[in-house]
Amino acid sequence: MVGRKQEIKDLNRLYDRNKAELVAIYGRRRVGKTFLVDEVFADRITFRHAGLSPEGEEGVGLLKAQLNHFYNSLIIQGMEECEKPDNWLDAFLLLEKYLQKKDDGSRQLVFIDELPWLDTPRSGFLRAFEGFWNNWGCHRKNLMVVVCGSANSWILDNLINNHGGLYNRVTYQIKLSPFSLRECKEFYNENHVALSDYDIVQSYMILGGIPYYMGYFDPELSLAQNIDRLFFERNSALKDEYDRLFESVFVNPEAMKTILEVLSTRNAGYTRKEISERTGFSDGGGLSRYLKALVTSDFVTKYVPFGFGKREEHYKLIDPFCLFYLHFREAIDRGDDEYWQHNLAAQSVVVWRGYSFENVCFNHITQIKKALGISGVTTSASAWSKREDDEEGVQIDLLLLRNDNVLNMCEIKFYGDDFTVTGDYYRKLLRRQEMLMKEVNKKTVVRSTLITTFGLKKNEYSGIFTNVITLQDLFL
Questions:
Q1: 461-472 as b/e, with b when 16 or more CB fall inside 10 Å?
Q2: Measured distance CA(222)–CA(355) in Å, rounded
Q3: Between β-strands 406-413 and 394-402, what pairing exists: parallel, antiparallel or unpaired?
Q4: Three-state secondary structure readout of the chain
Q5: First to last CA, the chain
Q6: Do 374 and 388 touch, CB atoms closer than 8 A?
Q7: What phi and psi values does residue 397 have, to the nearest 5 degrees?
Q8: Sign of torsion, CA 227 228 231 235?
Q9: Which among 129, 102, 111 has a CA at the least distance from the CA of 48?
Q10: How far is it, in rounded angstroms, from Cα 242 to Cα 279?
């Protein structure tokens, strides 16, 4: 299996411990949670079950369907037929009896996938699960329960940060992240897909390091051909994935999509007040829940731009898949089978590459710090823009404010060759440095840092950059 080395090590360690374990694994849809559990535990699972998607049904009908499905899972895996449960308390009682009957003293592993889907309105699921664990499960040293879910906010609110009966009951949590660039390269190599680092970065800009999406790549096709096949052909595999993504994770998918549509229009993001104004959502508890859910699900990040206070906290869209889809949604809907191949040099694609590469860098701050030799230095990352009445406005792609009195002013350039600093660009950088130095204390040194694809061409102006970071560094 590509990557996930620490997660594999942790799960095996927990399995070998002689104590009851309740493990929560969460992360974005399609990131590989189920695959991880299947690969690690293979034939060691005593009982497994996956919740039914709530899409298209609600109320009593959905509760009955979930209970019947749970009962059927027990029957398929060896339980003797009996009366079907009509509530979750009885359903978990059946699970307890099933496990007791199979108990020979060895480790018993229960895997419940898509746990949030089981918690339908007024079903009493959470209270029944609480009773199952607190009254029975936590007292059995040979029991390990692993639960998964793509609704991160549900997992966090109801399990990990629960303030009721499940308070502090989760013994271990794993947040599964998308692949890094290095892991993407390993994945493609493992699947015999030959791509240059330059093309792997572009695939990351589109698919966001999501293994499920990457698994669709055809080794016999180029990157551009694969993108057409996945998005732009009629009946393409990922044409409707954006809508499915939100409908499967959120109770109010349309509200979430409305917020993301706003955030996609400005790379630096918006304040909460600006989001309220542009969406029409009142600036109250509802908007707070929406933004919290998007942040915990890793679609959005929040940060305070350099030089601003907490009230200017910005929300920024960072999910590459969503950024790509929203940027090219009209072209995807039109169904031009070879749109990407025909538009590789189009201005809209060139502009998108520039913004998307900035997002790649925001998602690889750890690798950038390593390349700068500051892995152990506490650092905050943000964008910065400033406009004064008597001065030309300035925007900086990425600032790394370090607690060793250094500020890295990062220029991010996605370029097809070594980047060249012209005289005009040199003067622009000098002005940015001057404006930035007005904002920092006298102890802080400002260093211009270039993050680009291949490198920096040496000329009379190239010395403006103290550090140069390339794709090779981002693949660390």
A1: bbebbebbbbbe
A2: 23
A3: antiparallel
A4: CCCCHHHHHHHHHHHHCCCCEEEEEECCCCCCHHHHHHHHHHHHCCEEEECCCCCCCCHHHHHHHHHHHHHHHHHHCCCCCCCCCCCHHHHHHHHHHHHHHHCCCCCEEEEEECHHHHCCCCCCHHHHHHHHHHHCHHHCCCEEEEEEECCHHHHHHHHHCCCCCCCCCCCEEEECCCCCHHHHHHHHHHCCCCCCHHHHHHHHHHHCCCHHHHCCCCCCCCHHHHHHHHHHCCCCCCCCHHHHHHHCCCCCHHHHHHHHHHHCCCCCCEEHHHHHHHHCCCCCHHHHHHHHHHHHCCCEEEECCCCCCHHHCEEEECCHHHHHHHHCHHHHHHCCCCHHHHCCCCHHHHHHHHHHHHHHHHCCHHHHHHHHCCCCCCEEEEEEEECCCCCCCEEEEEEEEECCCEEEEEEEECCCCCECCCHHHHHHHHHHHHHHHCCCCCCCEEEEEEEECCCECCCCCHHHCCEEECHHHHCC
A5: 19
A6: no
A7: -60, -45
A8: negative
A9: 111
A10: 19
pTM across the whole model:
0.92
8 Å CB contact between 380 and 340: no
Distance CA 200, CA 204 (A): 6
- Which are the contacts of 39, defined by CB distance < 8 A and separation ≥ 6? 1, 8
Give me the residues paired with residue 343 across strands.
none
The strand pair at 143-149 and 21-26 is best described as: parallel
From the list 455, 469, 456, 453, the residue with the least C-alpha distance to 408 is 469
Find tokens 């260093």 and name the residue: 447
- Tell me the one-letter amino acid at 475: F
pLDDT in 10s for each residue of the chain, 476 residues? 899 999 999 999 999 999 999 999 999 999 999 999 999 999 999 999 999 988 766 667 899 999 999 999 999 999 999 999 999 999 999 999 999 999 999 999 999 999 999 999 999 999 999 999 999 999 999 999 999 999 999 999 999 999 999 999 999 999 999 999 999 999 999 999 999 999 999 999 999 999 999 999 999 999 999 999 999 998 899 999 999 999 988 989 999 999 999 999 998 899 999 999 999 999 988 999 999 999 999 999 999 888 787 778 999 999 999 999 999 999 999 988 999 999 999 999 999 999 999 999 999 999 999 999 999 999 999 888 775 544 556 788 899 999 999 999 999 999 999 999 999 999 999 999 998 998 888 899 999 999 999 999 999 999 999 999 999 999 99
